[in-house]
UniProtKB/TrEMBL annotation:
GO terms for cellular component: cytoplasm. Keywords: Cytoplasm, NAD, Oxidoreductase, Phosphoprotein. This is L-gulonate 3-dehydrogenase. Its EC number is 1.1.1.45. The record marks H139 as: Important for catalytic activity.
Length: 320
């Protein structure tokens, strides 16, 4: 694979452009809003320059990376000569159904068609396509040019070699793919996040702690471990002989907690307003863009630091 088409030039599509261009690919960008596509090279240039300003090493200068990104005026132009399509159009099923009919008709038979959707299974918008076997979900964690994890989710009819081509490409561009064995609502990351958010809102609603304290429980507690270890590794290292001992000792407690938490609740307006009030005292609505830039800079440095610790030069076999 040498050429990539990106369909949809919003926040996720623009970030994907930097991911592919940074890895040396020629990237053709199409969006139904031509102005959005035209802005993508500037985003790539600015974002890459920002990473350079943080002292992060890029394979090429920001200008060189941005020069690989080419806005196009039609889907036909974007698809010409490409090997892989990353679709990032709005998360509405009718839009995706119509788009994939077009991609099915126009993209060469060897082209992988991957969707960035964060929750819609590929089967929902590819079932009636003649070439549905080359379609799948390749879901990034936003923004993908900073966060490497990618969820690869095949539909029931996706060919295994298509899944492998997508996985190999993600590794080649520096992302960290996980491969789901089958479709499931919310995929993996959003299911994990859903469980945590449900309990976070419950703790606030029941008056146990406020929203700021919940955030600190993660940021200054669990999140420090979870930023470089997953939940299974975490508990494996929290017992003298490993996870089996941990589960023998604490499994009954967690089972009891799970029964308490088996009470899904909606997030009522009054509860959301309470959490909103806490967050606005920390960051005003006008300051959210600046806080987002702070977050992105923090993420960039954190990911770079993690890579430096897990690189072969640091005495580790690395991670993929």
């Amino acid at each position: 694979m040498t050429r990539i088409a990106l369909i949809g030039a919003g926040v996720v599509g623009s970030s994907w452009s930097l991911v592919f261009a940074r890895a040396g690919f020629e990237v053709a960008v199409y969006d139904a809003d031509s102005n959005s596509a035209v802005r993508v090279p500037d985003f790539v240039r600015t974002a890459a320059a920002g990473l350079e300003a943080l002292g992060l090493i890029l394979p090429d200068p920001a200008e060189t990376i941005a020069a690989r990104v080419r806005p196009t005026k039609s889907i036909e132009e974007a698809l010409a000569g490409v090997d892989y399509v990353q679709e990032s159009v709005p998360e509405r099923l009718p839009i995706k159904v119509e788009l994939y009919k077009t991609l099915d008709a126009l993209a060469g038979p060897q082209v992988v068609l991957a969707s960035s959707t964060s929750g819609l299974p590929a089967s929902a918008f590819t079932e009636n396509l003649a070439t549905r076997a080359r379609c799948l979900v390749v879901h990034p964690i936003n923004p993908p040019h900073l966060i490497p994890l990618v969820e690869i989710v095949p539909s029931p009819w996706t060919k295994p070699d298509v899944v492998e081509r997508a996985r190999t490409l993600m590794l080649r561009i520096g992302q960290s793919p996980i491969q789901l064995r089958r479709e499931i609502s919310g995929f993996v990351v959003n299911r994990l996040q859903s469980a945590l958010l449900g309990e976070a809102f419950r703790l606030v609603e029941d008056g146990i702690v406020n929203a700021e304290e919940v955030d600190r429980a993660i940021a200054d507690g669990l999140g420090l471990r979870w930023s470089f270890m997953g939940p299974f590794q975490t508990i494996d290292l929290n017992a003298k002989t490993g996870i089996a001992e941990y589960c023998r000792n604490l499994g009954p407690m967690y089972h009891g907690l799970a029964k308490e938490q088996a009470d899904p609740r909606p997030w009522p307006d009054a509860l959301v307003a309470t959490v909103e009030d806490t967050l606005r005292k920390q960051t005003s609505a006008d300051d959210i863009p600046a806080r987002q830039r702070w977050r992105d800079n923090f993420l960039a440095k954190l990911v770079d630091f993690k890579r430096s610790l897990t690189s072969p030069a640091a005495g580790s076999s690395g991670a993929s």
